[in-house]
Amino acid sequence: MTLALTLAPTLEAFFSERLIGQRHVSPHTVEAYRDTFRLLLTFAQDETGTPPSALGFEDVDAALVGSFLHHLEIDRGNSARTRNARLAAIHSLFRYAALRHPEHAAHIQRVLAIPAKRSRRALVSFLSDDEVTALVAAPDQTTAIGRRDHALLLLALQSGLRVSELVSLRRDDVIVGVRSHVRCTGKGRKERVTPLSKITAAVLKEFMGERGGGAGEPLFASTHGGALSRHAVGALVTRHAAAAAHRCASLQSKQVTPHVLRHTAAMRLLHAGNDISMIALWLGHESIETTQIYIHADLALKEKALERTTPIDVAAGRYRPPDALLAFLEAL
């Protein structure tokens, strides 16, 4: 078998055998990996002039992968985290290729040696109580779509569900009664149950009663009857946030996305005095370390911690450089 014939069948087997057959990954993971290799193969074709189906391992080498990652950041404007996610998909393919093609071990190891880039982690963005009130009130509840959007925003802000979890909900996933709750399947195919407040449960009960339909139908449907897409949910959140900004001026400086609603739910739980481990379970986090970002982002909690400390008894003073040259450097 020539080198040019090895990449295509290996890539196809990677998806069908490794990802879907052996690891049984979620459709979202398949989509993310698919998009990565679409971009990589298109970039390789532009660089080498070779069609994707004819590319060999000698074409997709460490130098080309490095150029591709640079292209993602510079030309496409992707963040370092996105760049690292694309690299993780490439590494996964090449680790699989190492088992099938040991004759390419040296080449594969050079690609696997490409490191992830350290990225700066920004503080999470979340909404205040006034901003939450304005956002939930933004949809026009005299229309069916407005009532759908109102129910979706309220559920997202109270439950902290991911946008992929929201669009996957079916009518029978919502249980309204003595112990109202919503069931969902999150990352890693882990199922979890999230309780609903009385207000959220009442809104959902009225919304579902108005819509009707079977138990297996989408909870939040488009005008065509199918489930809303993640893009559609992002668009409606952006639209209602812009409308809410007329009532709450602080929203004008914030970029409100479905994930900001998830962060807001977590911060509201934290402000209510809930333990961080409970919040991790609520959000479906794999590790409690992931949930620590909310403590880092919460200035109010840090201010309360400072108030409980004993003030340091020192006199106020100002540093004065002892030399003219040091004073010059200090002023730079």
Q: Overview of this structure, please?
A:
With 332 residues, the protein is mainly alpha-helical. The protein folds into two domains: 3-112; 129-307, hpI Integrase, Chain A. The chain is built from 15 helices and three strands. It has a three-stranded antiparallel sheet. Strand 1 (174-175) and strand 2 (181-185) form a beta hairpin. Helix 1 (7-22) packs across helix 4, helix 4 runs antiparallel to helix 5 and helix 7 (144-159) crosses helix 11 (258-271). The protein is globular, with a radius of gyration of 26 Å. Mean pLDDT is 86; it is low at 1-5.
Topology:
Elements: H1 7-22, H2 27-48, H3 62-74, H4 80-100, H5 105-112, H6 129-137, H7 144-159, H8 163-168, E1 174-175, E2 181-185, E3 191-195, H9 198-211, H10 230-244, H11 258-271, H12 276-283, H13 288-297, H14 299-307, H15 324-331
Antiparallel strand pairs: 1-2, 2-3
